[in-house]
C-alpha cells in the first residue's frame, strides 16, 4: 500500500527543471512513497514518462487540473545487480 503523496510544485519551470526537481525529491524518499509533480511545461508530458521509464520509478497517474499536468510518481526499489 502506498504511503502519503507529497506535492511538488514545478509550475513555471521549463525543461529539464521539472524532472530534475522530481529526481532530487524521489532520491530522498523511501520505496513506496509518492510525489505529485505539478508542471505546466509542455515538454513534461514527454519528459516525465521518459524519466520514469529510465529510472525504474512508477508513473502511477497523469491528469490535468486547470491547465496544469499532475504526474503521480511512486518510488520503487532500485533494480538488483
Produce a short descriptive summary.
By secondary structure, the chain is α+β, with helices and mostly antiparallel strands. It has two helices and four strands; from the N terminus they run E-H-E-H-E-E.
Provide a descriptive summary of the structure in words.
- By secondary structure, the protein is α+β, with helices and mostly antiparallel strands.
- Helices cover 28% and strands 32% of the residues.
- The protein is built from two helices and four strands; from the N terminus they run E-H-E-H-E-E.
- A four-stranded mixed beta sheet has the order 1-2-4-3, covered by helices on one side.
- Strand 1 (5-9), helix 1 and strand 2 form a beta-alpha-beta unit.
Task: Point out poorly predicted stretches.
Answer: none
Q: What is the radius of gyration?
A: 12 Å
CATH architecture: 2-Layer Sandwich
Task: Please identify the top-level CATH class.
Answer: Alpha Beta
So what's the oligomer here?
A: single chain
Summarize the helices and strands and which ones pair or pack.
Layout: E1 5-9, H1 17-27, E2 34-39, H2 44-55, E3 58-65, E4 68-74
Parallel strand pairs: 1-2
Antiparallel strand pairs: 2-4, 3-4
List keywords for this structure.
81 residues; alpha+beta; Translation Initiation Factor IF3; 4-stranded mixed sheet; 4 strands; 28% helix; globular
Amino acid at each position: 500500500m502506498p504511503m502519503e503523496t507529497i506535492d511538488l510544485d514545478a509550475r513555471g519551470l521549463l525543461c529539464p527543471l521539472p524532472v530534475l526537481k522530481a529526481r532530487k525529491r524521489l532520491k530522498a524518499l523511501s520505496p513506496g512513497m509518492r510525489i505529485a509533480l505539478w508542471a505546466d511545461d509542455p515538454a513534461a508530458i514527454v519528459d516525465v514518462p521518459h524519466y520514469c521509464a529510465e529510472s525504474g520509478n512508477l508513473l502511477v497517474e497523469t491528469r490535468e487540473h486547470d491547465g496544469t499536468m499532475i504526474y503521480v510518481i511512486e518510488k520503487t526499489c532500485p533494480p538488483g545487480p
